[in-house]
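Dear colleagues,

As part of the handover before I leave the project, I'm documenting each prediction I ran so the next person doesn't have to rerun anything. This entry is a single chain, and its sequence is reproduced below.
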Amino acid sequence: MGRVGNWTSNRRIALPLAGGAVVLGLGGGLYVTGLVAGADIDQGTSVLGVDIGGMSRAQAERKLTHELGPSAAAPVAMKIGDRVEKADPATLGLSLDTTATVDHAVRTGYGPATVIGRLFASDDREVQPVIRMNEQTARAAVDRIGAATGQQARDGSITFDKGAAKAVAPQQGVTLVEDRALDTLRTAYLRPAAGPVVLPVERTRPRIGTEETGRAMRQFAQPAMSGPVNLNVAGQRLSIGPGVLGEHLKMRPDAQGRLVPALDSKGLLADPAVARPIGEVTTAPRDAVPRLDANGKVVIGDPGREGRQVTEAALGKAVLPLLTRSGEARSGELATVAVQPELSAEEARRLGIKEKVSSFTVEFPAAPYRTTNIGRAVELINGSVVMPGEEWSFNRTVGERTPENGFVDGIMINDGQYVKSPGGGVSAVATTMYNAVFFAGVKPVEHGAHSFYIERYPEGREATVAWGTLDLRWINDSGHPLYIQARSTDTSLTISLLGTKKYDEIRATKGPRTNVTPPAKRTGSAPTCEVQTPLEGFDVAVGRVFVQGGKEVKHEEFKTHYTPRDEVTCTPEASPTPGAPTPGASPAPGTSQAPGASPAPGTQPAEQTPETRQAARVAQAAHAPRTPTAPSATAVGGPLALGGTPSH
């Protein structure tokens, strides 16, 4: 029984084993078949639609490179706002890594179950491509694209041109969101799309949109340009056309985001089309004019008068309401107002302008440019009132010597050569003013002498000016207002300071020439050479003595250094510049107190070294008056080539 039982039990076990052996036998064949036939990549595997199933690694890489390479290298189209830009993938730091992509596609195991399972698998497998991005390169590219395609928000606006209103359309602001743009580019790379890659942007709406721009055009701008406005001023009709109005009219947004009109009343009033007719029917105020009587006392020769003028505010108030009207309703009244003179007879007496404090005269040979330039400077200076403690400046008062300011070309010398420059001749005005200040006893702040001595001027008591580099400045420390009276003719110039004397008398002293330096000789050639007479260089000290009650109460000393004026001869002899004065001419007779004629071109300052110019600037600007125990200040020749040419 035991044997039979054992056999039965073993038989029950053996049947499944036999079946298992059949399975193992069959499975082993399939396993071997799978290993032999399967290669590295499963059947049905693809990348972006490219089938690489059943291929080895090398085969798959070659196929992906061949199939996807052109797309991977093709320019990427990007849409930023309303603009489309294209860039190579390499420029954007993008590339397809075929090796890594194939690594993701290969089978993951070689066990029997895995291998045999793949033989019977029927599902396709899509492997995502491995995209690489060089972030540094990508960010730099996106930065450039953002800068090139970004646009500022632009408000809608209205302009006026040649009598017509024109609307400027508003524009949204567009800014590329760079961090999100990197992710978008990486995701979209090699993906089929119907159009450009839309990169993320931030949009900014303009404050003034299309609706508000249209409203402003309909309600104001178009009516404003529909015809002239007509004004009645002092009984006369003044018509201002759309072309003139548009030149001085703008529309600007207010706090509520509405376009409102802004009229430049000042510009409109100064426009010749308006200024001329208004000037014909209005009168400017006229200042009182002090003059000296036979005893040297100030009397009011002309008491001045009140004026009637149109103000900027009155013009704007009259014009603006008419701009939205039509026909006869575009007419109105323009009021005039009374304008008082700056200096009335009563004000002159109140200020204590009662006597001549000082006066100085320069004479010069007639020349058209001198007449014009000296006359223009005199016009700008005459009538100035300098209050106690105030500083007077030649450059601030006269302004830059330009044609726009009324000056013409005059003859000057720069580095030994004749040159033309607007304002030639005004150093005669500077010298006259300096001497008037000298003898008034007020405080000089800045002045510069010519680099070499000019015989027509008193040694050490002359001045030159250059726009932007050298000024003539003084402070009224007399304790009383000073009125500047300037007069000129074709051959003379006088400047007087009227007010109340602080000192009974101001006397001038002059020491001998020291450190005398002989001039050199130079030879030039035509056509630019000009003959120049020689003159020694030297130092000179000038004193200013303050007298009160018959006694000297203060003394100041100023030192001036003059460089030699070289003798220049020309080979062959050059013809003098037409109309130029003879170099080296002597002072006009009868001018012992005042210097004679202004310098001839041949005697003008030569170019200075930078060291000399610097010394001039420091010494002349700082030559403080000295008491008998104080050290004297040195006034070196003024700077002549520091951004401007001195005027003579």
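The chain is about 30% helix and 25% strand. Residues 1-38, 577-647 have pLDDT under 50 and may be disordered.

All the best with the project,
I.
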